[in-house]
């Protein structure tokens, strides 16, 4: 049993791997070797930074086709993290607009520059720090995690999925309800960083390791 953290050069690869090692006895590897990725029992698609760079590195490392193939087949569980979530959508507004992997219908949008809360107080962009996540639909990865639990975020762009059935978690920031947990079949993806989210984040990773779609 092997969990492969897909290494295309972007994301908290080793932090994610260490967090996974903390919750499982399964072998965890950080790899860009196509044979190792295909042979793994579970996959993690991380991401950090600008989405143009992430998509570009996925192309440069010749892993885009493999990731698209694995998403299409849905033969094994895959967890997307941060920009690894955003890349699953059709399109992102970031970097003057860029097409993504198109696995799930929807858009990645930028938080408005002049973000305000309900009292009119200015909110910072990027959205950085702890915020509660509301479980919009039940999912095995929420097992043992309280409703409206706090997770750790760092992002200036947010997901707006096109289909309610694909939305499993939301976070309110200002007047925007961001879709911070999405998925379909054997794929689940989150905007927050479970590897930085203390007990709740580790529990989500443990649930992923035990998940049988």
TrEMBL record:
Reactions mediated catalytically: L-glutamine + H2O = L-glutamate + NH4(+); 5-[(5-phospho-1-deoxy-D-ribulos-1-ylimino)methylamino]-1-(5-phospho-beta-D-ribosyl)imidazole-4-carboxamide + L-glutamine = D-erythro-1-(imidazol-4-yl)glycerol 3-phosphate + 5-amino-1-(5-phospho-beta-D-ribosyl)imidazole-4-carboxamide + L-glutamate + H(+)
Keyword Amino-acid biosynthesis: yes
Residues at the catalytic site: 82 (nucleophile), 193, 195
Alphabetical list of InterPro entries matching this protein: Class_I_gatase-like, GATASE, Imidazole-glycPsynth_HisH
Any single Pfam family the record assigns to this protein: GATase
Pathway(s) of this molecule: Amino-acid biosynthesis; L-histidine biosynthesis; L-histidine from 5-phospho-alpha-D-ribose 1-diphosphate: step 5/9
Location (main, coarse): cytoplasm
Domain called Glutamine amidotransferase: residue spans: 5-209
EC number(s) reported in the record: 4.3.2.10, 3.5.1.2
Gene Ontology molecular function: glutaminase activity; imidazoleglycerol-phosphate synthase activity; lyase activity
Gene Ontology process terms (BP): L-histidine biosynthetic process
Cellular localization per UniProt: Cytoplasm
Entry's Gene Ontology cellular component terms: cytoplasm
Keywords: Amino-acid biosynthesis, Cytoplasm, Glutamine amidotransferase, Histidine biosynthesis, Hydrolase, Lyase
Record function comment: IGPS catalyzes the conversion of PRFAR and glutamine to IGP, AICAR and glutamate. The HisH subunit catalyzes the hydrolysis of glutamine to glutamate and ammonia as part of the synthesis of IGP and AICAR. The resulting ammonia molecule is channeled to the active site of HisF.
Quaternary context: Heterodimer of HisH and HisF.
NCBIfam families: IMP_synth_hisH
Protein name as catalogued: Imidazole glycerol phosphate synthase subunit HisH
Lineage: Bacteria, Pseudomonadati, Pseudomonadota, Gammaproteobacteria, Oceanospirillales
